[in-house]
Design goal:
The protein has helices at about 45-50, 55-70, 85-95, 110-130, 150-160, 175-185, 220-230, 260-280, 290-300, 305-310; strands spanning about 25-30, 40, 75-80, 100-105, 135-140, 165-170, 235-240, 240-245, 315, 320, 330-340, 340-345. It is an alpha/beta fold and about 375 residues long. The chain folds into 2 domains: about 25-265, Rossmann fold (3-Layer(aba) Sandwich); about 285-345, no CATH class. The strands form 4 sheets. A 6-stranded mixed sheet has the order 2-3-1-4-5-6, with helices on both faces. It is globular and about 100 Å long. The termini are far apart.
């Protein structure tokens, strides 16, 4: 004999939203105000009050980022005294925050420093499962001693032979280039899948004065092209087109690598963050098993972040694409190498975006 029982359980199907890490940056650099603090910033923050009214490397770059970051810009700043160890600052900040970008305002001067940045970024990925991209300044030109030719050679030496796909180097040509780029990457007016080169995003704001070398020669497009070829990230202009814009945000990936530009890494990182949380929810869950029914259901489950990233809109006859192309049946595979291990393979496919456009015009002299 038995007594009746009724049980009602709330089953968590991991269908909720995930934290938005993207477009948030941590700035680290020398400053005079707020030293040793981790300051939360947004588009309404008074930078002169929080980081000082006088020029400093962190204050100038954070202000430029705020000016270019749009109305929903958010960031953190960790001002330091001279001689600080940025690795210690990152470790301390990571106890409280989780940014997408780490912005190092003190210029790097050697290739070994860029390699150290890649090592730290990979360490954060493997130890904390945090995928970060490090943007670092490199020195601007010394207008009292350097020619543009000498400056180009010095800058190329910093990135020479470096393989660091999570690192981008930005010459401080105008004094605050790093902050301008960081803000442009963090504006939510455009997708993380968009290159900072995108002209429709608008001209950059707040860029410092145009630099000159020791001969008084102003920065030229030829020098910018040389720096870009050395995998540095620089602004650019178009003849007879108003405004200053940006080139690619070049990552220091090895030749032939998938992550030569930042927009490719950002979309993969975003998908990886979301898929990781879904995978955790399936640990030791028998609803993920090797039967055809389970594999089909879990393909739908694990593809959810890709579907969300691919949402697009058509409005007024114009197509506004998602961050990636819509996934299909070939975009995911689940395999079982043994009874207790499942491997999920996902394919993220970005849209093409023209960075070089050629228009060909013919003359029609026919009658009629």
């Amino acid at each position: 004999m038995a007594l009746g029982k009724v049980s009602v359980n709330n089953l968590n199907q991991a269908q909720g939203s995930t934290p938005a890490i993207e477009r948030k940056a941590l700035f680290i650099g020398e400053g005079a105000t707020g030293v040793g603090e981790l300051l939360s910033l947004n588009s309404q923050s008074d930078i002169d009050t929080l980081l000082g009214a006088t020029s400093s490397e962190i204050r100038d770059n954070v202000l430029a980022a705020q000016q270019n970051g749009g109305e929903n810009w958010q960031a953190w700043a960790a001002p330091q005294t001279a001689g600080y160890d940025w690795l210690d600052v990152v470790d301390s900040a990571m106890e409280t925050i989780s940014p997408e970008l780490i912005v190092l305002c003190t210029p790097a001067t050697a290739a070994s420093e860029l390699t150290d940045m890649q090592t730290k970024a990979e360490s954060l990925r493997t130890s904390l499962a945090r995928r970060v991209i490090i943007l670092t300044a490199t020195p601007g030109i010394d207008s009292g001693t350097e020619t543009w030719s000498a400056y180009e050679a010095a800058q190329a030496a910093i990135t020479d032979s470096v393989a660091a796909y999570r690192v981008a180097a930005v010459p401080q040509l105008h004094g605050n280039n790093l902050g301008v780029l960081a803000g442009r990457l963090c504006t939510d007016a455009v997708s993380i899948a968009d290159s900072p080169m995108r002209v429709a995003t608008g001209a950059v704001l707040g860029l410092g004065d145009a630099p000159v070398d020791n001969n008084g020669t102003t920065l030229s497009s030829a020098t910018l092209a040389t720096l870009d070829a050395a995998r540095l990230s620089v602004p650019q202009t178009y003849p007879d087109y108003p405004g200053t814009y940006w080139g690619d945000c070049n990552l220091l990936d090895a030749p032939g690598g998938d992550y030569q530009v930042i927009e490719h890494l950002r979309v993969v990182d975003k998908a990886a963050r979301a898929v990781r949380l879904l995978a955790i929810a399936r640990v030791a869950n028998r609803s993920l098993n090797s039967t055809p029914v389970s594999i089909a259901a879990n393909k739908t489950f694990f593809m959810r972040p890709l579907r969300e990233m691919s949402y697009s809109t058509v409005f007024a006859g114009e197509h506004f694409p998602g961050e990636i192309k819509a996934p299909n049946d070939d975009s995911i595979a689940i395999v079982w190498p043994n009874k207790t291990s499942a491997e999920v393979y996902l394919k993220v496919q970005p849209y093409n975006a023209p960075k070089e456009i050629t228009a060909n015009i013919i003359l029609d002299l026919s009658n009629g």
